[in-house]
Automatic annotation (TrEMBL):
The keyword Coiled coil does not apply. Residues 18-209 form the Glycosyltransferase 2-like domain. InterPro entries: Glyco_trans_2-like, Nucleotide-diphossugar_trans. This is Glycosyl transferase family 2. PANTHER family: GALACTOFURANOSYLTRANSFERASE GLFT2 (PTHR43179:SF12), RHAMNOSYLTRANSFERASE WBBL (PTHR43179). Keywords: Glycosyltransferase, Transferase. Belongs to the glycosyltransferase 2 family. SUPFAM superfamilies: Nucleotide-diphospho-sugar transferases (SSF53448). It comes from Thiocapsa marina 5811. GO terms for molecular function: glycosyltransferase activity.
Length: 348
């Protein structure tokens, strides 16, 4: 097999899992441990995208792979790997970092690409259930798992995804906070406007047909943008109830729920900026009311919750949007990146 070519359909997994890391090796390693049985069994290949980390993340991922996955061969062809590490010289954001992995997965010819946050741990049968759901329903282009709270493990965060009220840039998630047993007893499947980006199982063909993640969204709303590029999102998005993942909400980006004020301010800035750019891109007629609703709503929430430090990033996001509404500046996908094969095994 020549370097860069795809692998035979009977020689590589159907799925490539992509996880993005930025200075959070502990969280990423917890995710990797939860996925390890699927990697060892050959159910999925794995791409770890390190987004310009300044700590010891890269070394620790190499150590993990060396201890967890014993290679069956020493000749490591660029076209035949089980675990691949991609390193960027700086943080490209969620879309930019994941796009590096998506491009590599597309070049290898996988049927499915599973994009998972590093603040997620997956249940043992989560991936198998997603593949079965996708194989049963050819019209399903993006599938979401049942996302449960990591601490309160019987409490629902997402039934695949949620609805989106575009004029007010608001998420409507009727299953949030519901006990999982009660959710399973629901008589109607969840109606989705998007699949949660914390665990997004995609047919590879959508990236070939509709493009990669839009790098103008540095953080947040990338999954909404991808869903609304599909011809008929509501009929092409699916919830796979049997696939369970557990989510430390907010930890992958530093978090709206994290205690660090600097990180929560950064998250607030990007959330507000991305919400405005999403509205301009897909619903430009809603933009005036969306801007007013978001400015008033977020300001009121910050003040009433005593989080005064979030007012500055909110104002900064609005000013940045007015200066650069389409976000055409600052894409970094042209940067030189390095690849390192961490595991490469013979497939019979």
């Amino acid at each position: 097999m020549t370097a860069g070519s795809g692998c035979r359909s009977d020689a590589c997994p159907l799925v490539c899992t992509i996880v993005l890391n930025w200075n959070r090796p502990d969280a990423t390693l917890s995710f990797l441990e939860s996925l390890l049985p699927s990697v060892r069994s050959g159910a999925t290949s794995l791409i770890i995208c390190d987004n310009g980390s300044e700590d010891d993340s890269v070394r620790r991922f190499g150590d993990w792979a060396a201890g967890a996955i014993v290679p069956d061969r020493d000749d490591r062809s660029p076209s035949d790997w089980d675990v691949l590490l991609i390193r960027t010289p700086r943080n490209l954001g969620y879309a930019g970092g994941n796009n590096l992995g998506i491009r590599r997965a597309l070049s290898r010819g996988f049927r499915y690409i599973w994009i998972v946050n590093n603040d997620v741990e997956v249940a043992p049968e989560a991936l198998e259930a997603l593949v079965e759901c996708a194989e049963r329903d050819a019209s399903a282009m993006i599938l979401g798992s049942t996302v449960l709270d990591f601490a309160a493990r019987d409490t629902v965060q997402y039934a695949g995804g949620a609805r989106y009220l575009a004029p007010f840039t608001m998420i409507r998630n009727p299953y949030r906070g519901m006990p999982v047993d009660r959710m399973r007893a629901a008589t109607r499947p969840a109606k989705l406007d998007y699949v949660s980006g914390c665990a997004m199982f995609c047919r590879a063909e959508i990236f070939r047909s509709y493009g990669l993640l839009d790098e103008r969204f540095f953080l947040y709303f990338e999954e909404l943008d991808l869903a609304y590029r599909l011809p008929d999102p509501r009929s092409q998005l699916r919830w796979c109830p049997e696939s369970l993942v557990f989510h430390h909400e907010g930890h992958s980006a530093g978090g709206r729920s994290a205690g660090n004020r600097t990180e929560s301010a950064r998250s607030s800035y990007h959330e507000n900026l991305s919400a405005l750019r999403l509205t301009r891109k897909h619903w430009p007629l809603y933009l005036p009311i969306a801007m007013l609703a978001r400015l008033c709503g977020k300001s009121l929430a910050a003040v009433s919750n005593g989080r005064w430090h979030l007012l500055e990033p909110l104002m900064r996001a609005f000013l940045e949007f007015l200066k650069d509404p389409e976000g055409r500046h600052g894409s970094g996908s042209e940067l030189a990146v390095t690849e390192e094969i961490l595991s490469c095994r013979i497939r019979l």
